[in-house]
Design brief:
Largest sheet: none
Helix content: 55-70%
Radius of gyration: 20 Å
Order of helices and strands: HHHHHHH
Strand content: under 5%
Distance between the termini: 28 Å
Low-confidence stretches: none
Number of helices: 7
Mean pLDDT: 93
Number of strands: 0
Protein name: Transposase
Length: about 120
C-alpha cells in the first residue's frame, strides 16, 4: 500500500503496531499527523479500544520526520481511499438492484455450505 510506504519513508512505523492503519484509530492518528501534530505521545493517545493497550509501542512507532510533503501525499491517499470506498458502496447497491429478480435463487445458493452472498451473486 502506498500510504504505508509513505509513512515508512517518514520513519513512522504505524503498521508494525496497528494492523489497519485506515481503521478508526489509525485514521485518527493519520489525521492528527496531517494536521501538523508532531507529539508522538499525543497522537498515540488517539488510539481506541484494544489498540489502547499498545500506546507505548504506538508512541515509539510514531517517532519520525513527517514533513509537509508527507502530509500532502497522505491526504491525497486518504481521499483516494475514501473515493474508492464510496464507489464500492455504489457498486454494491447496483448489484443488489440487479440481483432483485434472483433473490430466491441467491438465498437457495447461500444455503449450500461454503457459498457466501458474493459467491451466489457471481
Amino acid at each position: 500500500m502506498r500510504l504505508e510506504k509513505l509513512l515508512e519513508d517518514a520513519g513512522i512505523k504505524l503498521t508494525s503496531v496497528a494492523t489497519d492503519i485506515t481503521g478508526v484509530s489509525g485514521r485518527a492518528m493519520l489525521e492528527a499527523l496531517i494536521a501538523g501534530q508532531n507529539d508522538p505521545a499525543m497522537i498515540a493517545d488517539l488510539a481506541k479500544r484494544t489498540l489502547r493497550r499498545k500506546i507505548p509501542a504506538l508512541t515509539e512507532a510514531l517517532i519520525g520526520r513527517f514533513s509537509e510533503h508527507h502530509a500532502f501525499m497522505s491526504r491525497l491517499f486518504l481521499d483516494r481511499i475514501d473515493a474508492h470506498t464510496a464507489d464500492i458502496g455504489r457498486l454494491d447497491e447496483r448489484i443488489e438492484e440487479a440481483m432483485a429478480p434472483f433473490r430466491l435463487t441467491r438465498e437457495l445458493l447461500m444455503s449450500i455450505p461454503g457459498f457466501s452472498g458474493k459467491t451466489a451473486e457471481v
